[in-house]
TrEMBL record:
Domain TonB-dependent receptor plug intervals: 219-322
Cross-referenced PANTHER family: FERRIC AEROBACTIN RECEPTOR, TONB-DEPENDENT OUTER MEMBRANE RECEPTOR
Residue ranges constituting the AMIN domain according to the UniProt record: 86-175
Alphabetical keyword list: Cell outer membrane, Membrane, Receptor, TonB box, Transmembrane, Transmembrane beta strand, Transport
Localization (cell): Cell outer membrane
InterPro entries per UniProt: AMIN_dom, Beta-barrel_TonB, Beta-barrel_TonB_sf, Plug_dom, Plug_dom_sf, TonB-dep_rcpt-like
GO BP: siderophore transmembrane transport
Domain TonB-dependent receptor-like beta-barrel, first and last residues per copy: 460-846
Chief place where the protein resides: membrane
Organism of this sequence: Myxacorys almedinensis A
Gene3D superfamilies: TonB-dependent receptor, beta-barrel domain (2.40.170.20), TonB-dependent receptor, plug domain (2.170.130.10)
Stated family: Belongs to the TonB-dependent receptor family.
Protein name: TonB-dependent receptor
Length: 883
């Protein structure tokens, strides 16, 4: 056996690039022993440096003759680790130095910084290298001038990493010892010390995926297609847009393009809906209002992990994949962070066009306690399209938002940790303007128009409120296993703006979603050997929700010209119902050799559904309630093969399991009893196959993958003749290709992009006559590209392009009553160090393109009043400072 010790050198200034893993060859579901070896961590504190030890299986080698002789001559050195190989691997943020050891020996190190050199001293170690007792590499990466590994004395090895201008910090992580190297924006004056605020900055994060196998694991070892959006990328994109759904729409392959509203309707992953989590807590309700990504402010987010393709590892509702939002973690030293910003339509620099945002946060550690508090406030003004017309968004303009995040943790001892987290988000809209219904009376397809009535009064302002609380406990060593538990509670309240159904029906109403989720997770990671472990546990989730409908007094509403909306009664648009979700799982992983890694597992899901007798709102039909139970076992299996140090092949088979949107079934049912509605309420099971390849060379990273998924009973949305969305249950298949490219052409220049092509069909008559899925479900071709330049030290500029293609397959098949017309947008982001902070300038839609987002183009029939144009050229300023 061998051990691998990793020092990862991260660059802060160069942006972490979009990394996607793509996999090849399906592994049979009978694979039962799997993945990387158990983590054995020993933590000690010295000179304010965090020391960690990372076991990882390496390539089996015999010690050199000189090393063997040393051991033979001195029996007291039998516990000395033999370093048999040193490797340097390029990463998007710098390099990593890998020390491989024989005989399963563990390494530990103390680190320090001397000038521009980071030094790691490793006691009880001896070099047994083919090249002798010293390893040296010149200029192995940007800003790194030399790496040396030398034998200081009989029992001590030293690693030195020298940068052209750098400050090093050490951060302890379960996956290894990470030595972050932050290159200074300007070379310090000889003899001068680095600024104090730079010493307090966090080291660059190693890309880690928590959601793929429910344990921390580097992206390169996950046999799934993964995209990690880092903190640096989020901060960069916030200069353009503070909407998390729009940020992901521009950066994540396979994910639908930005909607430019608070709703992520149509933003599927590979043509199927994803499950959204915040720190592992589910945010997706069965009755989807498409606001899962509008439940947290991006300023509170540390990173976002996107697992593309069906997954049941976290439970149901992830037939498209998983979007796990990771909130900011406490820092070692006390840190304050302030952000202030504003934005406006560039052609409408007037009062009602301006929006504002502010954020303040503190974080630190005091003894065994650590904490983090973030508070953000924002207000949006009016939006204008490229033709200068105001956009009647009805859900994002004239809106005030608040987000508060609190985390308090206690390290009970070296093995145990307890943490309490609370996140509260609220949107509230107060506007005198609505979308003008006159467009319904005009011939041809019309752009939505604004109608400002003045003095508007609503009993209930449109509001979106989301509160999540969680309690997490972990123990690193219980009889050799690691235990992680979580209890959570979530309360959701969404109240939409008024819906005026006239002249379709003489009804004006206001919908709202009232839902609660509570549940827990327990998982245990048990090592089976040095190279294999099993993750097993149980999950439970209870969801209760319903959609009451507030009926508005038509006499008052008409008499005041739509100014006054008084509630005269409440009915159940969708009756209250509950869902119980229980899952038991086991996930095994095995690192067969340095080239091969296998993984696989199974999960048993049991989902119960219950609803009382009720009366439908629009048809006044009496429906007999009832309950149903659905259960099944789903499998996943994957393989990673590295024929060389720079090329990886991936393959994955995975199954997803989910319930349909019961709200759409119960709203206007085609039956008189819930218990007799087997096909409408039956769960769907999705099989997915994926193959791919990834290359990671010195300054170039590229990925390519293809996927295919199928389900005997899918769950897809279509738009009816009157514009009302319906749910269709039929056999369904989805397939496509994704690719990414990132090139660091030089220290100053970076460029790259992504491309996504996917399609999908279902068979409405179950006779193998497949028709195209609606463009609500399947996005057109999406291409993104960027070019970035460090024009001067501390001043960076980025141009990014988004192209969305045409799609008329569903229209030609008679499924859609609309065609998707493509569009191309260009954004500019410019950031410069100013004082102790960073000033960012963003210009969205730089060329002032007049276009309609996909979610607007699919609004037809009665909902043509929501055919919103996109905002025109919009300018934003954001200043952020940490101290």
């Amino acid at each position: 056996m061998q051990m691998t010790w990793i020092i990862s050198l991260g660059m802060e200034e160069p942006e972490l690039k979009l990394r996607t893993l793509l996999f090849g060859v399906w592994l049979t579901s009978s694979t039962v022993l799997l993945m990387t070896q158990a983590v054995l961590a020993e933590i000690e504190q010295r000179d304010k440096s965090v020391i960690s030890e990372v076991p990882r299986i390496g390539e089996l080698k015999q010690p050199s003759t000189s090393a063997a002789s040393l051991l033979a001559q001195d029996p007291s050195r039998i516990g000395v680790a033999q370093v048999t190989r040193v490797r340097i691997n390029p990463t998007p943020t710098g390099i990593e130095v890998v020390l491989e050891t024989a005989e399963g020996a563990a390494l530990q190190a103390t680190t320090r910084v001397e000038g521009n050199t980071a030094i790691a001293d490793i006691p009880n170690a001896v070099l047994a290298l083919p090249e002798g007792k010293e390893f040296r590499a010149e200029n192995p990466g940007d800003s790194i001038t030399a790496v040396t590994v030398t034998q200081l004395n009989a029992n001590r090895v030293q690693v030195s990493v020298t940068g052209s201008a750098a400050i090093a910090q050490v951060q302890s992580r379960p996956s290894g010892l990470v030595l972050g190297i932050t290159p200074a924006t300007e070379a310090p004056v000889s003899g001068a010390e680095a600024p104090e605020e730079e010493l307090a900055e966090e080291p660059e994060e190693e890309e880690v995926v928590v959601t793929a196998t429910r344990t921390e694991e580097t992206v390169e070892n996950v046999p799934r297609s993964v995209t990690v959006i880092t903190r640096q990328q989020i901060e960069e994109q916030r200069a353009l847009n503070n909407n998390l759904g729009d940020i992901l729409g521009k950066l994540v392959p396979g994910f639908g393009p930005p909607t430019l509203t608070t709703r992520n309707r149509g933003q599927n992953l590979r043509g199927r809906p994803p499950a959204v989590l915040i720190d592992g807590v589910p945010q997706t309700t069965n009755n989807r209002f498409f606001t899962e990504l509008r439940t947290i402010d991006p300023s509170a987010v540390e990173r976002v992990e996107v697992i593309r393709g069906p997954s049941a590892i976290f439970g149901a509702d992830a037939t498209g994949g998983i979007i796990n939002i990771i909130t900011g973690r406490p820092t070692k030293d006390f840190t304050s962070r302030v952000s202030l910003g504003t934005n406006a339509a560039l052609g409408k620099l007037q009062g009602d066009s301006f929006g504002f945002l502010g954020q303040y946060g503190i974080s630190g550690t005091q003894g065994i306690f650590d904490y983090r508090f973030d508070l953000s406030l924002s207000s949006s003004g009016s939006f204008f399209d490229a033709e200068g017309d105001r956009i009647p968004f009805e859900d994002i303009d004239d809106t005030e938002s608040i987000n508060a995040l609190a985390k308090i943790g206690v390290n009970i001892d070296e093995q145990q940790r307890l943490q309490v987290s609370v996140n509260h988000f609220r949107d509230r809209r107060d506007s005198d303007c609505i979308t003008d219904p006159i467009v319904l009376a005009l011939p041809g397809r019309q752009k939505a128009r604004v109608l400002c009535v003045g003095g508007r009064e609503l009993d209930n302002d449109p509001t979106r409120r989301n509160t999540v609380a969680s309690l997490n406990y972990s123990h690193k060593n219980i009889f050799g296993s690691q235990l992680d538990t979580q209890l959570y509670y979530r309360n959701i309240f969404f109240s939409n703006d008024l819906a005026d159904l006239r002249p379709l029906r003489q009804l004006v109403f206001q919908n709202r979603l009232e839902a609660e989720n509570w549940g827990g997770r327990l998982q245990v990671r048990t090592p089976l050997s040095q190279s294999a472990n099993v993750l097993w546990g149980v999950d439970y989730n209870k969801e209760e929700n319903g959609v009451p409908l507030d009926v508005i007094d038509l006499l008052t509403y008409n008499a005041t010209g739509r100014r006054v909306a008084r509630v005269i009664g409440t009915r159940d648009n969708i009756p209250p119902y509950s869902i119980d979700n229980l899952g038991v799982f086991a996930q095994l992983q095995w690192e067969v050799s340095p080239q091969w890694a296998l993984s696989g597992g199974a999960r048993y899901n049991r989902i119960g559904f219950d609803v009382e007798d009720y009366t439908t709102v629009f048809t006044d039909r009496q429906i007999q309630g009832g309950s149903n139970n659905f259960d099944d076992v789903v499998f996943n299996a994957g393989v990673v093969y590295q024929p060389t140090d720079t090329i990886s092949l991936f393959a994955n088979f995975a199954q997803g399991f989910s319930l349909p949107d019961f709200g759409r079934v119960l709203n206007e049912p085609r039956f008189v009893s819930v218990n007799n509605s087997f096909q409408e309420t039956e769960a769907q099971k999705v099989d997915s196959f994926e193959v791919g390849v990834r290359g990671n060379w010195n300054s170039l990273q590229a990925t390519l993958s293809g996927f295919y998924s199928r389900s005997k009973l899918g769950s897809a949305l279509v738009v009816g003749p009157n514009g009302i969305t319906q749910q269709v249950r039929a056999p369904q298949r989805n397939y496509g290709v994704e690719a990414t490219l990132d090139w660091q052409a030089s220290r100053a220049w970076r460029l790259g992009g992504t491309i996504t092509w996917n399609e999908g069909e279902n068979s409405l008559n179950d006779n193998d006559n497949y028709l195209a899925l609606s463009s609500i479900e399947v996005q057109p071709l999406k291409l993104s590209a960027y070019i970035e330049n460090e024009t001067l030290p501390g001043w960076r500029n980025r141009l990014q392009l988004l192209h969305v293609g045409n799609r008329d397959r569903a229209f030609n098949d008679g499924v859609d009553r609309f065609r998707i017309s493509g569009f191309t947008t260009l954004d500019l982001i410019s950031s410069v160090r100013l004082g102790q902070g960073t000033l960012s300038l963003g210009v969205q839609n730089l060329l002032n393109e007049q276009y309609f987002p996909i979610t607007s183009q699919e609004r037809t029939g009665f909902f043509e009043t929501q055919n919103f144009a996109a905002p025109g050229r919009t300018i934003s300023l954001l200043y952020t400072i940490e101290f």
